[in-house]
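In response to a reviewer's request, we include the raw inputs and outputs for one of the modeled complexes. The two entities were modeled together in a single run.
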Amino acid sequence: MAEKLLVAGVDVGSATAKAVVLDRDGRVRGSSLLPSAPNLSGVGREALNEALAEAGAEAGELAAVAGTGYGRAALDFAALRITEITCHARGASVLFPGTALVVDVGGQDSKAIRMGPSGEVRDFTMNDKCAAGTGRFLAVMAGILGTSLDVLGPAGLRAMKALSMTSTCTVFAESEVISLISQGEAVPDIAHAVHQALAQRLAGMVRMVGADGPAVFSGGGALNPDLVDCLQSLLGLVFQIPERPQLTGALGAAHLALRKAGA
Amino acid sequence: MRVASELRFRWMKDVALPVLLKARERRPRERPRGESPLGPPLESTRSLKRLMTRHYALARYAEGARPVAWVTSGAPVELLRAFGCYTVYPENHAALCGARRMGPEICAHAEEAGFSRDLCSYARVDLGHALSGLTPVGRLPRPDVLFCTNNICQTILYWFKELSHGEGIPLVMLDTPFIASGEGTPEVFDYVAGQIKDAVPALERITGREFREDRFHDVLRSSIRASALWGDVLATMRHRPAPMTVFDAFVHLAPVVSLRGLPSCERYYEGLLAELQERVSRDVAAVPGERHRLMWDNIAIWFALAPLSRLFAEHGWAGVAGTYPNAWAETTHYLDLADPFGSLAKTYTLIFLNRGLDYRLGLMEAMGRDYQADGLVLHSARSCKPYSVGQYDLRQALAQRLGIKSVVLEGDMTDFRTWSEEQAKTRLTAFFESLDG
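The model returned the following structure tokens for the whole complex.
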């Protein structure tokens, strides 16, 4: 029985649902990433089943499941429910031991987390009740520019001209972007200005918690190379990027489930 | 007319209201508590409800029978009581509107009239009430006088001027200079005492009543006692486990804010203190299995008091201290019957909101130690700037001095349009997780 011991972490966010299945040695045996859905419990279970299928395992083999993300309360199959702050911190320190700072840009919120030497959360800050500084902000901007999130990052890297954007409020920024478009500015330049505005907001959050030591960028925002570049140059820091940054929270949750299972 | 009003007031006060309130209480009021993580509720809450309901119910009959004054929470109400004024506290009323989740609805009336959404939401509720008449208490009596002190903020001044202009009501305003550092100078106290003295003839004129020194002394004596009792009530939370929480303190501070100087206020706190002392002697916990103790900074988030109280308790957290409830016990020791005007000046000028951040830091450091707090929640109130500014510096300094972790909650006193329950829950839960390791 002990050899079959598996655990899972399920992270149901506003944009995506993720799951990671680990074996007792903490090796990733399966993972999944799905678009989120209004039925939080359903989409969480679906993500878990997909990760289990990848692991070639069944739900009965799970010793513990930890749920995280804003949909965590709905995950009735999870014995543990832990906030995404704790899970991202744990996930980042599993991937990059010694991590002292995590910046996470998710769909609905963004956060900066400062950690102590053993990966414990020392301080954190999150965006206000507002889409400013979140992945949703980027998605809205990409929509106005008639492009997608995948294209926005690489486009920003090709910027030739520094445009200024004064607002990270999604509503105000939207009208700024529209006026830049009507002035005939190029999409890469506008995309870069959007990233620069978002990075400034994130940098403020990082300074608020204090940054000192190795840093990790997690969440969907980390897939945007121009955003990462902007933040790095603002802070004078180099961020480590997980191979699959969106899974960081689910991975952290799975490791916390592993601790709970006593392995 | 005056006689008729007087008779009606007395009839309501002594005969009708006691009967009505008693009849209401006979109704079954036991609600199933479900699986509450909280300890047994305080018995005194019933008396509190009775006292405050009576206060608001009687208020509407005071019109014409008593001079009615609208007062700010930091004003020397003792002076008004010497004239037999019936007092209404717009801030207390706004808190009540907040707790009943009526904030945004009433604020909207002020916003439609052009008041900014960034303005203090207590002011917006009050001005919105003045414009619409919306209130959960039936009706507030029209004031004969507005009485305010700018020791809690400068907004008060413009807010009360607005009420005064709009309705043509006389305004008596006391200016308390900000004490940026130090303990205040004799010139400052003389200046404030002079204004309080000058208010006497003004109030005589407005109320048509004579200032009675003997009555003034009685009121002061009662005020000193009520504040001291309130201080003792708060001090019971030093005990482990705490017999009540800071969330209870937010609720039970209503009388010391708005009925200070009246015998009913003293009696209320005698009862509450006795109940708490009895709890302490039996180690009755407000949060069973209390694991951590917490200090709260800023005004309550009135509309979220119950869910927050529950969330804390679920994690074994007891809120045991707060700068806001403490404000009504903080400076009353300056009151001195031998020098009523001078000591009132000191008492109301030296409250922490009228002093520099260093003083507040020292106060919070002492409270943190006295109440053995191992965490701090700072409510950054969206529309209360004077209270919220400097909180990031405070948390850093307190982390160094007391070695305690803290979390900032973005909220408001009454306007829940600024509030996201899910986000707040995540922040607090993550904070609790970080303390549990």
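As requested, we also summarize the result in words. The two ends of chain B are 69 Å apart (CA to CA). DSSP finds 19 helices and eight strands in chain B.
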